[in-house]
Amino acid sequence: MSESIVQRQTGLQGLSTAILFPSVSLFGEATGLYADEVGPLTSVVGIGLFQRTVLTLQRAGIRQLMVLVGPEEDQLKQALGKGPRLTIPVRWMPIREFPLDDPRTWESLAAEVRGFCLLSGVQGVFASSLIESLRHEVQEGQAIIVARAAGVRDRQPRRQSLRVKVQAGRLRSITSRQDDAALVAADLVVLPVNLMSAAGGQGDVETGTMPIRRWLERAAVDGHVRVLSMETNRSHWYQDVRNAADVRAAEVKLFNSLKGEFEGFVDRFFNRKISRWFTRIFLAVGLSPNVITILAALIGLAAAAGFGVGTYSAGIVAALLFQLAAVIDCCDGEVARLTFTESPFGAWLDIAMDNVVHMAIFAGIAVGSYLSMAGDDGAWVPLALGSAAVLGNGLSFWLVTRAQKIKSASGWKTPVQAAWSDFMLKNVASRDFSVIVLTFAVIGKLDWFLWMAAIGSMVFSLLMLWVIRPSATTRA
User: Fold this and answer.
1) For residue range 12-57, what is the model confidence (pLDDT) as tens digits?
2) Into how many domains does the chain fold?
3) Residues 6 or more apart in contact with residue 378 via CB below 8 angstroms
4) Pairing of strands 170-175, 143-148
5) In the predicted model, is pLDDT for residue 418 greater than 70?
6) Rounded distance, CA 100 to CA 91, Å?
7) Residue that finishes a domain, picked among 196, 218, 242
8) Do residues 200 and 313 both lie within one domain?
9) How far apart are CA 346 and CA 31, in angstroms?
10) pLDDT attached to residue 475
């Protein structure tokens, strides 16, 4: 590329640029230390380390990338071209043309950056929220080094983990000595462009070495290096990936980090525990999130048909199927987040299929209750309640769709409306009531659930109408 990316996007400010080093560690850890050493193409939950790093940065708001790449350039380009769609520009800079120990390389990189730059290796897996935090933490003239607590693997004889000593949130020193009281430096550093420019012009980089550690040590003397410890926020996690054991640890952290935007009690403590087993199967088979959504909906519709039979045993089987559908329904979001395949259509399809299933469940229970009461004077009551529940659910879905459009356009008239909307959206997305259905099925009182569903859906739709009416009127 002859034209600078930033010259074409001069509006980029703050921390919007990242420089990746797929061939080396930021702090010069040697290769060949482990018998089962992994590389930038090693798969973690179906996606290579390099590709996962790039997509995580994109998800976190990084808007352009520069890659200082070694002989594996063609392989990395091919890997990045597969799978989820990359939407940010990438500039490839071969190390043979831009040596890492040449001050002119760093001067060229500094010229490409406005504001701050994130330097990152790819031998690690981390949360996008960690990068988002870094983007909010940048301060003029201040560098940031990310650090984590030392683990058992860091105390292994062959492990070369740099220790970071901190005082009042500032970097005091970087050492290779194993000190349990110190934090461990991660391969994530934020540098202000002025520090990169000044450091690149000093011309004292040792041959064959990365200069980043020396720069940080110099800036730390003046108190210009802050340390972001992941111990202060467990959601900002980072996992080094150097060997096969690290790959397994990274996959565990990725699965543990899965959480939907809105979750109820049953989701958090039951559905998510079970859904991760199914998610692993779906990832191995290669099912897309939308296919999983349809699968969950089909299981839910089968449950609705089971409720329509009207017998006690059929009700139990149908309730268990409905609970299974709730578990599978967690998997589409998990697969989407793990494989970076989220989409607005997928989110809409998930909500739409949930509502189709819910309305079918209400109708199935109503028909089943009617059949079990056939010949009684009050046999019409479950049909009326089922109709009210279906109507209320359909109206709620329409109102929720309107609320999401208002939210995406930042159209709430007051903060109170915004807070109420978030509360209502959280409750409409909850799958907790599947357990309530199972409970009523066990005690043989599914007709009682219809009263709850009819009243609850109508009240919810009226509350949702009250929440969005002022903002909808203002937008109109």
Assistant:
1) 468 999 999 998 888 866 555 566 788 899 999 989 999 999 999 9
2) 2
3) none
4) unpaired
5) no
6) 16
7) 242
8) no
9) 41
10) 47
